[in-house]
Design goal:
22 helices; five-stranded parallel β-sheet; about 50% helix
């Protein structure tokens, strides 16, 4: 069939197959099938590069075909694009959950259809290259995955559970099952207070209890650390009994510390959904209540499902958005109350998605979780440097720009080299690019952060402590961490008019900053009352909506020009 990739179009309506064939016959060798059963026979007989499948067909519909492909290791890597009627959002969401790469809607728009298929294939190519780059590490990992039992507890490990739970769910279609995800609250504290042998004893005891609980009708596994997962028939699951029995078993060890397991439960409604996604849903439910005293378990609901779908959409589009320049910076000015002029600005990232508003509060936590934040941070830093260069080229008195530094950056060995390469590339002084770090970075690894801050300052980069006062180690941090500027958490500002204590604390921080030769900036200032208070306690550098909201780069440049001319 030549060197072209092979596209399989599966639709019981001939005219639909004809139309799609016209779209792609120059780029692909086209195969056709009238239903999922015929399509499966074709896929079993020869290599297929991509499948376009209609959801509604006789004999075997698109959902059944998709479920079979995505649960078969041999075919799971084939990208599947589903075809749906316009406004059929439920089918689209269900298909994406089951592993579809994308969807196209009828009637077909040639430009949109071609772009979507091209993007799907591009993502597959990127993923293939990434897999090749980590092949050696993957080989080591696969060797470990072949071992089914967890070496500490003797129950199944993660990968064995995924395989065996999948077989159980699909082999007992008439039985309803539940996935239970459990972990221990503050397990690290237990290891710190006692010896590691005590922690291991707890894990082995819990594993023994879970094995007894599931019996012959279910399975259990240790996923990682203190995380366990069970797959049991729904009619056999009594969560109150499970938790009570587990508490009693752990208490019998005689350990002088309260050890509480928390659980999330996903009631399986689609046996073809990948088991790891089932576990993710149960884990979502767990995270809703973990750390609460009275509530020890929670069930996954549709609201969590909608959140997961939204997160998947964000992850699916992040690479394309970065490459296409959808991420932009806005600059929120910082004013000095004495001079009434702009003395700095903070670079904030926004996602200009063409179809919907995605707030930083949604996408930044996801990027911090999956590591993409490191690439996004570097993009923002470069945009900030471009803005500084533009100020210089316009002959302005350059206003320094501060950028946020997510804590994951501190694990990259080339972090400092990259910053130095940026200021060299745009020929700007390091003092003009200020680095904002958070308390959480200090709490993760204080010794590493202290060393990095000293290195930054040694190269001329000023360092700001962002959201000071929002964490638990603020005063201890001031003793050891040589930052240049404290940015007071906006929560204090909101309380100024309502709480004399908040005002007293803020006044003390401003005074303490002066004694330690640190500048103090207050963010989140919105009212004249707050401005008057800050001026009265001697805090003169202010950031907030009272003076200006975050501005696009060109608007910010104009504001700086007018500010410096005294307008």
């Amino acid at each position: 069939m030549g060197n072209k990739p092979v596209m399989l179009i599966v639709d019981d309506v001939e005219i639909n197959r004809v139309v799609l064939t016209q779209f792609f016959q120059e780029e692909y060798n086209i195969l056709e099938a009238e239903n999922g059963k015929d399509a499966l026979e074709i896929i079993e007989g020869q290599a297929v590069s991509i499948v376009l499948v209609d959801m509604v067909m006789p004999v075997m519909d698109g959902f059944q075909l998709l479920g079979i492909l995505k649960t078969n290791d041999q075919y799971a890597g084939i990208p599947v694009v589903v075809m749906t009627a316009n406004n059929d959002g439920d089918s689209e969401a269900r298909a994406m959950e089951m592993g579809a790469s994308d969807f196209i809607t009828k009637p077909y728009n040639p430009t949109i259809v071609r772009c979507r298929i091209r993007n799907v294939m591009a993502r597959e190519e990127i993923e293939w290259r990434r897999v090749e780059q980590v092949a050696q590490n993957r080989q080591l990992l696969e060797m470990h995955q072949r071992i089914e039992l967890d070496s500490l507890t003797g129950i199944y490990n993660r990968d064995a559970f995924y395989r065996r739970a999948g077989d159980m769910l699909q082999g007992h279609a008439n039985t309803s099952y539940s996935i239970v995800y459990l972990d221990i609250s503050c397990f690290k504290v237990i290891n710190d207070l006692f010896r590691m042998e005590t922690g291991n004893l707890i894990l082995k005891t819990a594993a023994f209890y879970f094995s007894m609980f599931v019996g012959d009708t279910g399975i259990c596994a240790r996923i990682e650390a203190d995380h366990f997962v069970l797959c049991v028939p729904a009619d056999k699951l009594d969560m109150d009994k499970l938790i009570a029995g587990l508490d009693s078993t752990i208490q019998s060890l005689g350990i002088s510390h309260h050890i509480h397991f928390y659980a999330g439960v996903y009631q399986v409604d689609n046996a073809f959904l990948p088991v790891d996604q089932m576990c993710d849903r149960a884990h979502m439910a767990l995270n809703r209540i973990k750390g609460q005293y009275m509530t020890r378990y929670a069930f996954y609901d549709k609201g969590m499902r909608d959140q997961m779908i939204e997160e998947q959409m964000i992850v699916r589009n992040m690479e394309y958005a970065l490459n296409e320049g959808q991420f932009v910076i806005v600059l929120q000015p910082m004013y000095n109350l004495n001079s009434k002029k702009i003395v700095g600005a903070e670079a904030l990232v926004r996602w200009n998605h063409p179809k919907q508003q995605i707030s930083p509060g949604k996408f930044i936590p996801i990027f911090e979780s999956n590591g993409f934040i490191v690439r996004l941070d570097r993009y923002v830093w470069e945009q900030a440097c471009i803005t500084l260069r533009q100020q210089i080229d316009r002959g302005l008195d350059v206003v320094p720009v501060s950028v946020n530094v997510s804590r994951l950056n501190f694990y990259n060995s080339d972090f400092m080299d990259y910053l130095l390469s940026l200021v060299k590339k745009y020929d700007i002084e390091p003092r003009l690019l200020k680095l904002e770090i958070t308390e959480s970075a200090y709490m993760d690894n204080p010794h590493q952060l202290i060393a990095m801050v000293r290195a930054f300052r040694g190269q001329g980069f000023p360092v700001l402590m962002d959201d000071f006062g929002s964490g638990f180690s603020s005063l201890n941090m001031l003793k050891d961490l040589p930052v240049d500027v404290l940015k007071i958490d906006m929560a204090f500002v909101r309380e100024v008019g309502r709480s004399s204590r908040a005002g007293a604390i803020m006044e003390s921080i401003v005074d303490l900053g002066g004694r330690l030769n640190m500048e103090v900036v207050v963010e989140g200032v919105e009212t004249q009352e707050q401005v008057d208070f800050l001026e009265r306690i001697g805090c003169h550098d202010i950031q907030g909506y009272y003076f200006a909201k975050p501005l696009d780069v060109e608007s910010f440049m104009g504001l700086v020009e007018r500010s410096q001319k005294g307008e």
